[in-house]
Amino acid sequence: MATRVRTASGTLKSALHHTHPRPTLRAFGRSSVRPTSSSSSTSKPRQPTKVARSAPIGLLVGGSVLASAIAITQLTGSDDSHHHIEEQSQNAPIKDDRDPSLPRYRLSTIRQHDAHSPEPWVTSSDKVYNITSWVSAHPGGDIILRAAGKSIDPYWEIFSIHKQPHVREILDQYLIGYIDVADLGPDGRPKMEEVEDPFEGDPKRDERLVTLTAKPRNAETPTGEVAREFITERGVFYVRNHMWVPQVDERTADDTHVLTVELPDGEERRYTLRELKTKFPSHRVTAVLQCSGNRRSDMTRQVGHTNGLQWGVGAISNAEWEGVRLADVLADAGLKVASYPSLTQTSPPPSDPQIPDPNTLHIHFHGLEAYSASIPLPKALSPSEDVLLAYGMNGGPLPRDHGFPLRAIVPGTVAARSVKWLSKIRVADEEATSQWQRRDYKCFGPNEGANPDWERAVAIQEMPVTSAVTGVWVGSDVKRVPWMGEKRLLATEEKGEGKKNEGEVALQGYAYSGGGRAIARVDISLDGGNTWDQAELVDDCAGGKCKGSKAWAWTRWRYCGTLPSPPTTRTISSASPSSSAPIQALEDGAEAQNGTEKKIGEKDACTELIVKATDTSYNSQPETHAGIYNVRGNLATAWHRLRVCPKCLQNSTCNSNKNIWSDGAVVYGCGFSREDEKKEER
């Protein structure tokens, strides 16, 4: 039976007291630290250097490292040699040549600045950081306080994402001093601490996934598998985790996993997973999930540095989801609104002040591992938006990496709002206050630099139109195209000569637009944008195969054509080369003077392949990333570009690793790179 519990509306429940499924922790012995006199132990804390509110952006995911309820202890030595070294270190003076302008703090003082202190501190190596002003912007919220008063290093050793240089740069902005030499060992560091690896219980992953970070696991679908099939195989569906994967017993989850729904007045309703499955009608939706950072590496390469995982074209996948409508659950929980919500218009003020205007409310999703995000309430309540509480994927239960036992599915919206391992839903009068809603998954102007105004920027919801090439076959490799079959459109021999047409090219890829907008057209250029043609759109939804009210799935496309003949000369002009001009290399890298012609070696001449998509609202992709550049590298949706060079056509065996684009046993061609180079290098 679902149960009701009355709580005080708006009561803050500290993350310190939440219990999240996590690995069982072993206890380590604690060695005492004998304080010695130090005039700096009671020094007034030096405040951290004042930084912009947006400074913590570099720790968007990194800060969530501290979201574990991990007990950290200091290891004790047991052998005589250890005690001998310790005695020597206590007796021998340690030279302190660190910045004299910063105070020194004893470990006993640092421990006082724990989770209950108004000024929490952490240490790293021999440095001390005051994270007071950072806690509210931390990706894991208050959970960072679990490390307060102790060293942050053991956590960062486990979470591989912290190896990125910009993460350390952000932490250094909160430096207030150093650990007193009396508490340092011969190596100039305090005694090493250990924490148990919370990732030990993570599921095994398909070896085909392209891993960007191991802890937490972030991995994209290999290019050869992206859009190979309309429905992405569960094993190669891209993985985007901010922390470890919660451990929920699959055998008992139906009865032990509980979803809590909190209404605006503070009243709560709880449902077991079994109740959700049996009490409400089941629905299926065929929908894409796409990370906001998909193709971020394109933006980095073409414009400049971006913060975040450098995804290629594989941070997107398509699946059939099964679950119950969120609107049905909210209605059963007792949610009442003044009028039926509209996604485009604001409702008139309600006549009953006790019944809220739905257009002023938001749905907060909370995961077991402390992640949270929100969407506008009208999105959740509209039957045509198909928002699900999903427990199934591609005909089976949710895999652990993808939210088992329960997750939100918000079609047409950035995947960051489809919260996994769902444990609580809250209806509130503001957006979620988490890092992932307020200080991540936003975009900025190209001029805003490393410290953008997070408060002014709007959180990403619906995704813009995008497309990408995921397969290329050139020359004799065209025969490898799996979908060509008997309907092959290209001639393999020239009439009367019996010679293979080495200029053949076959492409495939995906196009997608958020908000349920279908793809109207995919344009292809084989010569850098000088001429265009249209790709064939694959009708995967024919016969009602796609579930849902709108076009939530991607559109796969195919194209067959002939590459342009390689030029033999190139005129060098004083004007900057057009962004649509074919890429052509000067022989031996020689430079030419303006207004002169330079002979081009045929083997070095290249051409540029371009794909761009237009949706049914006639939204189209921007030509370059320059105009949409943002420091976070989000929504990298410019035309997708590849280079193809004649040397590929001359090497039908494609036996040179340098010239092969392949994934596993599938070879897509050779002599070209996955994406075009930076515009400045043309």
Automatic annotation (TrEMBL):
<feature type="region of interest" description="Disordered">
    <location>
        <begin position="78"/>
        <end position="102"/>
    </location>
</feature>
<dbReference type="InterPro" id="IPR014756">
    <property type="entry name" value="Ig_E-set"/>
</dbReference>
<feature type="compositionally biased region" description="Polar residues">
    <location>
        <begin position="1"/>
        <end position="12"/>
    </location>
</feature>
<dbReference type="GO" id="GO:0050464">
    <property type="term" value="F:nitrate reductase (NADPH) activity"/>
</dbReference>
<feature type="domain" description="Cytochrome b5 heme-binding">
    <location>
        <begin position="102"/>
        <end position="180"/>
    </location>
</feature>
<comment type="pathway">
    <text>Energy metabolism; sulfur metabolism.</text>
</comment>
<keyword id="KW-0479">Metal-binding</keyword>
<dbReference type="InterPro" id="IPR008335">
    <property type="entry name" value="Mopterin_OxRdtase_euk"/>
</dbReference>
<keyword id="KW-0560">Oxidoreductase</keyword>
<keyword id="KW-0496">Mitochondrion</keyword>
<protein>
    <recommendedName>
        <fullName>Nitrate reductase [NADPH]</fullName>
        <ecNumber>1.7.1.3</ecNumber>
        <ecNumber>1.8.3.1</ecNumber>
    </recommendedName>
</protein>
<dbReference type="InterPro" id="IPR005066">
    <property type="entry name" value="MoCF_OxRdtse_dimer"/>
</dbReference>
<dbReference type="GO" id="GO:0008482">
    <property type="term" value="F:sulfite oxidase activity"/>
</dbReference>
<dbReference type="Pfam" id="PF00174">
    <property type="entry name" value="Oxidored_molyb"/>
</dbReference>
<dbReference type="GO" id="GO:0043546">
    <property type="term" value="F:molybdopterin cofactor binding"/>
</dbReference>
<dbReference type="InterPro" id="IPR000572">
    <property type="entry name" value="OxRdtase_Mopterin-bd_dom"/>
</dbReference>
<dbReference type="InterPro" id="IPR001199">
    <property type="entry name" value="Cyt_B5-like_heme/steroid-bd"/>
</dbReference>
<keyword id="KW-0349">Heme</keyword>
<dbReference type="GO" id="GO:0005758">
    <property type="term" value="C:mitochondrial intermembrane space"/>
</dbReference>
<dbReference type="Pfam" id="PF00173">
    <property type="entry name" value="Cyt-b5"/>
</dbReference>
<dbReference type="InterPro" id="IPR036400">
    <property type="entry name" value="Cyt_B5-like_heme/steroid_sf"/>
</dbReference>
<feature type="region of interest" description="Disordered">
    <location>
        <begin position="1"/>
        <end position="55"/>
    </location>
</feature>
<feature type="compositionally biased region" description="Low complexity">
    <location>
        <begin position="30"/>
        <end position="49"/>
    </location>
</feature>
<dbReference type="GO" id="GO:0020037">
    <property type="term" value="F:heme binding"/>
</dbReference>
<keyword id="KW-0408">Iron</keyword>
<keyword id="KW-0500">Molybdenum</keyword>
<dbReference type="InterPro" id="IPR036374">
    <property type="entry name" value="OxRdtase_Mopterin-bd_sf"/>
</dbReference>
<dbReference type="Pfam" id="PF03404">
    <property type="entry name" value="Mo-co_dimer"/>
</dbReference>
<dbReference type="GO" id="GO:0006790">
    <property type="term" value="P:sulfur compound metabolic process"/>
</dbReference>
<dbReference type="GO" id="GO:0030151">
    <property type="term" value="F:molybdenum ion binding"/>
</dbReference>
